[in-house]
Design brief:
43 residues, mainly alpha, rod-shaped
Length: 43
Amino acid sequence: MLYKQEIKASAQQRIRHIAKKQRALYNTVAHNILNDPSYKISN
C-alpha cells in the first residue's frame, strides 16, 4: 500500500515540477511580448 502511495506522490511531484516549468516559460513569453515594441505597434 505504501508503495502505491509513493508512486502517486512522486508522479504528483513530477507533474507539479513540469507545471512550474511551463508556467515560467509562459511568463517569459508573455513578458517578451509585452516588452517587444513591434507588438505594441501592431496592437
